[in-house]
Write a structure and sequence with these properties.
It contains 11 helices and 10 strands. The chain has 291 residues and is of the alpha/beta class.
Length: 291
């Protein structure tokens, strides 16, 4: 079964496919790519292995195949796997299901801290949008502290979810940022007020669509990014305010007859230098101090 699964997933870059391929390498499974492989959008893949059609897909795709391939016992087994917080990947052909693969999302140790840090810097609501089954998504949400889960979404469902969130938060003066890394995330990122792509692991479509690309897959950069953007806006306001005060001051001195040309030039150049120096503070903002 693992050999057939790797044959279908050989050319895929999906995280679940990479997990299956890694497992196959550990068992020294012979990797021979399947022929005529086609993606079933949001559900799985189909291809030909040894002259017969084979398929691999999610729990929902397994249910579609239930009329010809899956038995009630197989569906119950898939439900038990999903209920335990695992992602179900089914493998089969036109006549039967060869087996079920259970894949567990490994929650990074810092994930809960990142979500807490996002709340601390002013993010009011963290929503998980995923094509995975609801049971698995809810387990991950509980472990990480995510506020809301919307699961079993196709790409167009993610776009619709973002549109609803944008409508809700715009009513209260808020904005919506979408963080993604895959081709399926790109349309939703484009619909959000701010698109953020994971640059190291993100697809080209996601990176090109995003407004911001993180050049690593470290989500702990997100709270820093928000704090840095707030600091940038604060310094911009300081610089504009300082420049206007200097201009108004010398306008008043000129009208009163106390200003000179050289004094005005010195003040203008001095103000420009102070604005630049104030902006340079961003280079070290939020960076750890070393001794």
């Amino acid at each position: 079964m693992l050999e057939f699964a790797t044959a279908l997933e050989a050319r895929s870059e999906h995280p679940l496919a990479r997990a299956i391929l890694d497992e196959a390498r550990q068992h020294s499974v012979n990797l021979v790519p399947a022929d005529s492989v086609q993606a079933v959008r949001g559900k799985g893949v189909i291809g030909r292995i040894g002259g017969r059609e084979a398929w691999l897909g999610s729990r929902s795709y397994l249910e579609e195949r239930a009329k010809t391939a899956a038995t009630p016992d197989v569906l119950l087994s898939a439900d038990r796997i999903a209920g335990a917080g695992r992602t179900v990947v089914a493998v089969g052909d036109e006549n039967s299901v060869w087996g079920l693969i259970a894949i567990a999302d490994a929650v990074r140790p810092q994930a809960k801290l990142v979500v807490a840090a996002l709340h601390a810097v002013g993010v009011e609501h963290v929503v998980m949008l995923t094509g995975d089954n609801r049971a698995t998504a809810e387990v991950i949400a509980r472990e990480t502290g995510v506020d809301e889960v919307r699961a079993e979404l196709l790409p167009e469902d993610k776009v619709a979810a973002i549109e609803r969130l944008v409508g809700e938060f715009h009513k209260v003066g808020g904005a919506v940022a979408m963080i993604g890394d895959g081709v399926n995330d790109a349309p939703a990122m484009a619909r959000a007020d701010l698109g953020i792509a994971m640059g190291a692991i993100g697809s080209d479509a996601a990176i090109e669509t995003a407004d911001v690309a993180l050049m690593s897959d470290d989500l702990s950069k997100l709270p820093w990014l928000i704090q840095h953007s707030k600091a940038t806006l604060s310094i911009i306001r300081q610089n504009i305010g300082f420049s206007l005060v200097v201009k108004l001051l010398f306008t008043g001195l000129t009208i009163a007859g106390f200003a000179s040309l050289w004094g005005a030039i010195a003040a203008d150049v001095g103000a420009s230098l102070l604005v630049v120096l104030n902006g340079l503070r961003l280079l070290t903002h939020g960076q750890p101090h070393t001794s």
